[in-house]
């Protein structure tokens, strides 16, 4: 153990020796270990070994192996020896840190222009605000604007603003200190002075937006002139460099009256950003609604007529013909030139008063923003104030997009998120809208959304959850307005395109069941051509009707011909037809509507409100033994055989158990490509065979049981009756070929002799009925090969 103590002290000494001359290097974490000396190491080991006085060495070895904690530590030893500790500041390898910032914070290179334009906008906002109290800052009558010039030949982009600019010290503080935001300091100063207006449009807050320029640039030059200084300074920095330079601008041609000019020297692989068309596209996508005009240097052209030189041969010919007067020939050419062009709209439509915006304005904005050619079904323009403040315009499209199913993929890029009018992202995965409302399109603009440093990812927070609830509520109000419109065709069009989305909402969003349910539409037994709402169903209910009845099938035709519907049709009770695969699951998740429970008429224990206990008792006494006889013959195929209260014309039906799959659900689950056979057997419900005691077939079977329960024809009739009920109830027979054989056999028995010729029947001349002769069989002994019989 003494050897271990010496080794530990040697390690400490080595670390102390290695760290001493390198304190100026990046992040010298190990140097702090050297503050614990050799005596400390010895004291630490001694404190552990001193416990041998109370127990033997084997126990100590066991405890150390098991990881028991001993309170004697190096820190306590340092306190006991009162050795002073040394504190060091974390250092950073600037080039490495810059590389991490550039390549880790931003996932998309093209956001560099958004960040730099946002910085320019902040500079203009600061000047406008300070100019109110310090008019001398605006002595240079220069317009407030941002200008972007691209040189595609040399791969250079120049961004110039006429904002507040920077002094030499501000260059050092803002650009020389990573993650220090000049905008954030400005806002803090305004807050401390208590003179700030409640509404500010400053965008920056993290202090790293400027460095996004190195996403695409090898070298960045910043030339800036502040109205507070008489000199213009130039800041230059390169990617992967740990230093920068600042100098005074002496070239008269490069002087600017006020503001900042950024010159980006693009990397070889990123020179495509220097095309004017690419710049225009990025500005329109990210910074279209910045509150200051943005100009780009664009190539333009106009047409003009120019004279064409006449062919000498034609001129000589005209002279010979004596033509003295001739008309000069011209052609149309396009004259090219370069000029500034305004790119952005300074006033977003969502910031305007809704009373001042016309329907045509909303439709034009919708078509332009989302590249649509049809007008939307509805729009909603609103402002939310209070705990969370934001502005938004939402739209319901006229048609669902073709070629893809938005229910499966929630990332539809239909919601464009802006923060202080700067586009942030349209790539969301349910943060602002649930999956079933992914068809809703619109813009959301907020000043205080919780974004991460890259501004590309919306952080989950209480504010986002509140925004989501309010957006969903507004979307439902908009859809409800379509359903209550006088033009019924609008909602029919909506339901045809987006009805499945709302049904999915019944499954995924229990909190909004009360908002979704009034918007649902279904066919019914009394409305086979036009779907009805649940409100219309409730209005048509009978006075003594307690539940909402439904049947799930693959089509309206199958649903209206199902035997489950017979007694309900006689009583004029309306039944909803659930013909979409998602319908049954949606209704089961709703459970009830306006205190009326949903009841599947294909399940057991159906209560139609007309129970007659005396008749039921009589039927059980009369047919009870017959039911037991049928159950004994069918065996495990059915759970029980009962007297039915839902049949009137059919002899029998096969109903599902109360808590298992219905026949329709079983059919759908079998059709799943990734279905699990074991779960199919588990969820398959118990089947109850219900018979109609008033039907002739059942009465004949009852008579057969009472006379000869072992009659094979009667037992075959029970098998065929079960298979027929299996098919008519919506189930799939396990052996279709066997079912076909039983049907053929019964047909043969029924048709035997029905159309056969009798002995007195007329036959054509020369023909007689063929009567087979009785031939006795002859026994032939086997003969050997090669012999004759």
From TrEMBL:
Natural source organism: Arachis duranensis (Wild peanut)
Annotated GO MF terms: ATP binding; ATP hydrolysis activity; ATP-dependent protein folding chaperone; unfolded protein binding
InterPro entries: HATPase_C_sf, Heat_shock_protein_90_CS, HSP90_C, Hsp90_fam, Hsp90_N, Ribosomal_Su5_D2-typ_SF
Entry keyword set: ATP-binding, Chaperone, Nucleotide-binding, Stress response, Transit peptide
Protein name in the entry: Heat shock protein 90-6, mitochondrial
Transmembrane segments: none
Family of the protein in this entry: Belongs to the heat shock protein 90 family.
Biased composition (Basic and acidic residues): 313-324
Highest rank taxon of the organism: Eukaryota
This protein's GO CC annotations: cytoplasm
NCBIfam families found in the cross-reference section: PRK05218.1 (NF003555)
Record region (Disordered): 306-326
Binding positions for ATP per the UniProt entry: 115, 119, 161, 166, 181-182, 205-210, 260, 455
